[in-house]
Structures are given as C-alpha cells and as structure tokens.
Amino acid sequence: MGRDDVREYVESSDCLLMLGAFMTDINLGVFTAKLDPAKSISATSERLAIRYHTFENVRFKDFVRGLLTADLQRHNAPRIRARRSRRNFSPDDMARK
C-alpha cells in the first residue's frame, strides 16, 4: 500500500519505536507489514510492549518522559528521500472515491 523503500526501511530497523500507534489492519497495510516483535517497542495509553513482554499500568507520559531523560546513544540512519506530489491534493479528491 505504501512506498516500498519506506516499508523496507521500517522493516529493517534495529529498533522500531511505536508511540501511540494502535496496530490495526488499516495502518499495517492490511497486515502486509513484517514487523519483528523482537525489535519493537510499542507504547500506547493502554499498554507498553517491549520485545515479547507486555507491561500494564505504565502511564504513556511516564514512559515518554523516561525516554526523553535517558542517556541514549544516537546514530545516523540513512535518510529516505521525499517524493514530490505530482499534483495538489484537495478535499474533493476524497469525495470522488
């Protein structure tokens, strides 16, 4: 459903951090995404999942605050080139579908 280069970039990540994203068939391209749970951290208002472990009663804002104050090592990942739209999108485009 999406761009192949973006899908490959996300799927090959060494750590996928998903903040506030609820994994549904819509945002996963009808489950065509191949996201490795062993390389994933998912935090929502309802739960926190790190690799194969699920933690209940962890407040989302506390988790994000912890990330912001943690001494994390940064690395430079390759960038994905943005594509320019061939034309401007208008709300009328949605009505035509």
How would you characterize the overall build of this protein?
- The protein is α+β, with helices and mostly antiparallel strands and about 100 residues long.
- It has a 4-stranded mixed sheet with strand order 1-2-3-4, covered by helices on one side.
Salient structural properties:
single chain; 97 residues; alpha+beta; 3 helices
Supply the helix-strand structural class: alpha+beta
Q: How many DSSP helices?
A: 3
Global geometry: extended
Major sheet attributes? 4 strands, mixed
What order do the SSEs take from the amino end to the carboxyl end, as H and E? HEEEEHH
Provide the residue-averaged pLDDT. 80
Measure the end-to-end span. Answer: 16 Å
Radius of gyration from the CA trace? 17 Å
Strand content: 5-15%
Order of strands in the sheet with most strands:
1-2-3-4
The count of DSSP E runs of length 2 or more, i.e. the number of strands, is 4
Helical coverage, percent range: 10-25%
Show unreliable segments. none
Topology summary:
Layout: H1 4-11, E1 16-19, E2 40-43, E3 48-50, E4 53-55, H2 60-69, H3 91-96
Parallel strand pairs: 1-2
Antiparallel strand pairs: 2-3, 3-4
In short:
The protein is α+β, with helices and mostly antiparallel strands and 97 residues long.
